[in-house]
Amino acid sequence: MSDCLLTTLENGLMVALKEIHTSPLISQWIWYRVGSKDEKSGSTGLSHWVEHMQFKGTARFPASMLDKAIARAGGQWNAFTFLDWTTYFETMPAPAIDLALNLEADRMRNSLFDPQEVESERTVIISEREGNENEPIFRLSEAIQQAAFRVHPYHHEVIGDMADLLTLTREQLYQHYQAFYQPNNAVLALAGDFDCADMLERIQALYSAIPTAPAVPRLERPEPAQPGEIRLDVEGPGETAFLEASYHAPAANTDDFFALSVLDSLLAGPSNLNMFGGGGISNKTSRLYHAIVDRELAVGVHGGFSATIDPFLYSFTLTGHPTRPLKRALSALDDEIKRLQDEPVNPDEIARAIKQARAMFAFGAENITNQAFWLGYAEMFASYAWFSGYLEKLSQVSPADVQRAAQNTFQTSSRVVGNYLPSGGEIE
Amino acid sequence: MNQTHSLPGPDDITRFVLPNGITLLLRSNFNSPSVTLHGYLPVGSLFDPDEKLGLSDFATSSLMRGTETRSFEQIFDSLESVGAVLGFSAGTHTTSFSARSLMEDLPLIFDLLADCLRQPVFPPAEVKKLRSQLLTGLAMRAQSTGDMAAITFDKLLFRDHPYARPDDGYPKTIRAIQRDDLADFHRRCFGPAGMTLAIVGAVDPARVRDQVEEVLGDWVNPLQPAPPALPELLPLSETVRQHVPLAGKSQSDLLLGVLGPRRRSPDYPAASLGNSILGQFGMMGRIGDVVRERSGLAYYASSNLSAGLGPGSWEVSAGVNPSNLEKALDLIIRELKLFTENGVTQEELSDSQDNFVGRLPLSLESNAGVAAALINLERFDLGLDYYRKYEGMIRAITPAMVVEAARRYINPSALAIATCGP
């Protein structure tokens, strides 16, 4: 990795830097190894709420000042919470990066969690959840996730259950923050128009005084093998039916993950790996589009999965045809899966998946925010080498690997099939 | 790195007009292995009859379903095999298209673009499938509190003007459209006059011009219509309000606002900065501050100025718990009153001016960002030096100009208010 500098400060903070001089911009991302999988029943939604509180100010950077300072500089900032991680980014015109550097170092330890702000944010997050609940797909996915993970903390949605959003306290939030927002639990990644040696010096000056924290014991509750297929129904408003079939999928840091990526491309169209910029590729020549949409068994089909630390889910989502039940579409899906389990794929199909991935990385590389994203993201479940070796790993996937991944992952006995049953009604 | 020189300008944008009326805008970016193409044609839902509303959208969605030389399968196989993307989407005045591919696949993109635009065949079986997909999309739209609030808002604000109509039609009008209607619409309305293409990537302008000329240079359509004359739009004289009930939803969406300036109106820069202060800057401006930050009523609450070829809308939207709907509306209307009565401070204006100028490099870093900017230059006739002069134009706006623009458009006692939820 000649273009990148990867190092770890004495206090355990991992730092990844990459010089890119095509635009006068710098993007900074800080990643914390904490997400919804670090939450017990009764305190779900903590990680996401902490993320919101990180925008509510420190003594040095009061809440009202932060948004304005970033916006005045013409910067962009945001944050995301996922199953395994929480991340914050700022993409700034290069001369204004100091603001982002100072802000991120300060709020690693010094956020205030003002009680009034906690209360005001409670209703904002409840409103966010209510907005999600308006979507049939959210309701269906939430039910499926809960059914697929009885033991593992992947069982709840990142935003948390309403019961917990109503009752979590300022102290719980602050403790969660104190425990996980530590240099030895974080990765700081920057890409853009700077000099690596100079940037490292500035980072050292900002973070070196923060001491290493004791490691937090993690929840280790592996999901036992699912003893059989689970079927469930979710009822709600609307006149469109949806079906989601979810299978337990391999963790990111396994060879099967790469075989499944190829499988994903040819079965459902490639999942877009870029979080920023680039966009995805259509899936109209995928096997499932042919088998289901072309034959008018459903009007849409999507498949996809995420890179996670522990095994999560590969999910297919079918959007119902106005006049046909989704039962036949599910049989067609089963037939296609069986074909992949029974017959090795043509090597040309693998070559195609690799070209698709190469194109998506090229589109994503135009964007500094996305490049900085990759520097840190892969560290959350593997290492930067996972990303830099991605295309190489894909090219090593053989037809036999794809067949094995289909056999291992797509087992009827370990899936959850959920139907969204619309209550119907007149539409305008 | 000198910021001004990284902004597109007359010295690095190449503009050609082909004899048949197609305008080409090109900018090279040799740092990128990929290429982006954006463009539009002057055809949209304005040409749809009421009883077949959605015709333009349906015809545009059909362009890639089969041509005289390629089937639907062949079109998408050639694109997806190389990880490229091409898509068309219909609007009110124009139909847009965009594509991106690795540099090596650009000739394929030109070939497909020309094929789909010039000789689509609207295969009956594909039209039937597409109709089901469109109807499902409309069924989902009818269940979206945000979409239904937006459709209702347009009806209240634009009344009997064509802008009151949703571009994608209604289930009844989509069912009324036959395969021959699509072919006829294409034959009459699609043509090269007024078509614009912007291409950004590792391209040589002269070579790209030749490539485009080869596939589109001999395209003519003598039937291509002039843009339809539109009736004048007058502001509302009093507040009108409508609620769309949607049972079983957890959240209500609200949308309220007034007519806004055209993109080419001299008021636009001042209104745009005013809108930033009202509901964009930082965490969604004054509206976000009052509705989200201070009252905790909503996850999103912001204002938006949507300005196009004709008069647009200046609107505030939010998603709130149904029990907080009236409270949120009151807070927002109070902000609109304060905004039009007291205007903005110099400090607020300077903040937004800094933001408008400072964010340019970020919005223009990717090929797609530059292509979108080039399209804007042409669509609104802003001039190739627009981005180089942008800072001066933004800094010249004063608080007095902002409040004048606000008062010209926003009358807090004559709003269109649309809400949707339980």
CATH architecture type of the largest domain in chain B = 2-Layer Sandwich
Q: Any idea what the CATH superfamily of the largest domain in chain A is called?
A: Metalloenzyme, LuxS/M16 peptidase-like
- The CATH topology name of the largest domain in chain B reads Cytochrome Bc1 Complex, Chain A, domain 1
Question: How much helicity do the residues of chain B have?
Answer: 40-55%
Q: Oligomer, anyone? A: heterodimer
Biggest sheet features of chain B: 6 strands, mixed
Helix content of chain A: 40-55%
Structural class by sheet pairing and helices of chain A: alpha+beta
What proportion of the residues of chain B form beta strands (DSSP E)? 15-25%
The greatest interface between two protein chains, and residues involved on each side, is:
A-B, 79 and 71 residues
Please name the fourth-level CATH homologous superfamily of the largest domain in chain B: Metalloenzyme, LuxS/M16 peptidase-like
CATH T-level topology of the largest domain in chain A: Cytochrome Bc1 Complex, Chain A, domain 1
C-alpha Rg of chain B (nearest Å): 23 Å
The strand line-up of the biggest sheet of chain B is 1-2-6-3-5-4
Count every helix of chain A, treating DSSP H or I runs of 4 or more residues as helices: 16
